Structures are given as structure tokens and as C-alpha cells.
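FIELD: query
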Amino acid sequence: MKRFNFSLQLLLGLVAGVALGFVAKIWDVSWLAETLTQVGKIFVQLLKLAVPPLVFTAVLVSVANLRNVNGAARLASKTLLWFLVTAFVSVAFAIGLGLIINPGQGVTLDTGAAKAVDTEGAGTWLDFVTGIVPTNVVTAFTEVNVLQIVFLGVVLGAAALAVGEKAEPLLNLSRSVLELVQKALWWVIRLAPIGTAGLIGKAVSTYGWELLAPLAKFSVGVYVGCFIVLLAVYPTLLAVVGKVNPIQFFRNAWPAIELAFVSRSSVGTLPLTQRVTVERNGVDRDYASFAVPFGATTKMDGCASVYPALAAIFVAQVFGVELGVGDYLLIAFVSVVGSAATAGLTGAIVMLTLTLSTLGLPLEGVGLLLAIDPILDMIRTATNVAGQMVVPVLVARSEGRLDEAVFNAAPQPLDEPAAGPAEAPAGRAPVPATV
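FIELD: result
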């Protein structure tokens, strides 16, 4: 496999998974379907295993690292502003698309049999706000509540900034843990071609046309909406605002986008996203160590903008609820403000329940969409991760922190671990490796 670069390995895994999935489905090969399911399941479990320590240490260290960055407050403000702007543009296009295609119009589903998922602690704005602060530090990690882990990381990172030198032992420990976790996670990512085959194979063998047919218009709408953001919104921003070549950006970013598509986890893709952002897109390492981890947990244009907007319109039309201009403005507001609720893990159920409850739509609508959620989550997560790389490029370009020579160079291979502090590329400050 060393003869093939990592991107090609992922593509081969994708093709193999589709082929094996079709074999399992067409000829009803149950053992093959089960094998694909277990391979994909183990790969996702390995990714999730690293989530709590990875998110906590990455956020803590990234906040603390801001003291080493000139104009840190300005950089953080610009980053958050672009997060909001791109979320608003994405949801605006999604609402427009929904009004054009009417995804729920003419759809006949047994709404009486639809069961809402357990939305306790996730259904309202009050639940969302109160759910940010953990009642118990341990349960935030054991239950993998990413939003609460992010909160703890931000608070301790800010405290470390305020304390100064006395916090260095904690920061040194956190950097060491972060480097160890990311090294281990990189080994898991190297298994991605095999995991890809399992995940895609399971999807193909499990979700046939019989399941997709009633929801075909909605499913196509989600993919089209995400493609509009990926292939129109982001390239326009890169070309007009960032003044960089969008095609070169996607050449550089493709491995992370591809891994996000199959893994369905922004946090699981984080080490690769970080490497691509620094080593291929040329974003300053100090700034990227802040922007990328925050993006992986709060920047969700696919899950928090495109999907809930189209899903809300779909649910309203299926249940015969008329939406007005005020409702569409509420959808936009929820998407822009509530994107952190998705928290970088697979699925966007929390965000969807938040949107439906804000609009007063039946939460049973969530149950109607659960069956096809894994298929939709692939393109949503790919869109998320692309946006998590676009914003750092835009901000770095505006602040003179983008190495254009690196950005425009032939994409560097990602088969080997990133250089450590001692081997930092020329012209860049040696800082703790973040990948």
C-alpha cells in the first residue's frame, strides 16, 4: 500500500466498500454484510475513543496558545465572525433550496407511527444552555458530552492565560497528552481505507432504494444543498475574499474532506484537518492550533445550517404546518447561534430537535428521518470539515499568516507523521506538534 498515497488508498477503500456492499445486498450475503458492519463499527469506536482527551486538551492548549499569537483577540474575533457569516450564508441557500424543491410535498409517510428520539436535554434552548455546564466533570467525559468538554477546556485555558507561568506544568502535561492522543489517533486514521470499505459497504448493503424512495427528494436536497455550499459558497469566498485558488484549496484539503465523508466525525478527522490546514494550506501553525480545534467542535455548516433548514421545511410539509417569514428567520437564527450543539460527533439530531422545538414543529419528525441519517451525515460532515479549513485560510490570508508558497505547492504526502518541534519547517516558529 505504500506505493499509493493516502488519498488514493481512501479512494480504493471507497470503491471496494461500494462493490462489497452491492455484493452483500444483491446476493443477500449476510456474513459479508455483518463483516462490513463490524469493520466500520470498530473503526468508528476507535475514533470516538480518542474524542474526550483530544477535544479537552486541544481546546485547552489552543486557548492558552493565544498568548503566543500577536493580535490574538483580533484573530479569535475574525474567526468567530466568519463562522457566523458562513453559517448564515449556508442556511440562506438551504432555505431557498427548500422553498424551490418542497422536499415534503406529496410525501406519504405514516406520521402516526413515527416515534421521536429521546430528546431529553436536547430539545429546547433552555436544555441547550443548561446542558453546556456539566453537573459532574467525570460524567462529561464518560458520557462523551463534547459540548461540556469544550466548555471545560475553554474555562481552564482561559484560567491558564490569567495565571501565567504558574499554569505551565498543566499546559506541558496537556501538550504531552495531546501529542500522544493525536499520534495514536493518526495510527487509527491510517486504517481509514479499511474503515472506509466497512462503513460504505454497510451503508450500501443496508440502505436500499426501498428505504430511500419516500425520502428521495429530501435526501437529494440535502446533498444538493451541501454541494452548493462546497462548490459555490466556499470557492467564491476563497477567490473573492481570500484571493487564493479554490481548486488548489480542494486539492490540498481533499484527504480530510474524504475522511470526514466516510467517518462522519469532525472530531475524528481533526488530526488530519490540522495537518492539511498547516502543511498543505499554509496556515500559520500557532493560529491553526486555535482555529482548527474550535472549528471541529463548533463550525458545522452541513449539520447545523443546510440539514436542519431542509429538515424543518420537510417536517412542516409532511405534518401540514404552514411556515411564515418569521419561521424562516428563526431557522436562520438557530443555525447561526446553535451550531455548537452538534459538537463534532456523528449525527445532527440535537441540532434538528433544537430547530423543530424552536419552531413548534412535532419532534416526531426526527423519527421519520432517522433511518437515512447515516447516508445524509456523510455529506454533512464533509461540508463541515471543508468549512473548518476554509475559515482559517480566509483569516490567515487577511492577517498575513498564510504561506502562499506552501498553499500553491504540490500537495505534500500525508503518509508520514508530521514533523516535531525540532523539525519545524523553515520560517516557522518551532512549537509543539499538534498532529
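FIELD: remark
Residues 72-101 form the longest helix (30 residues).
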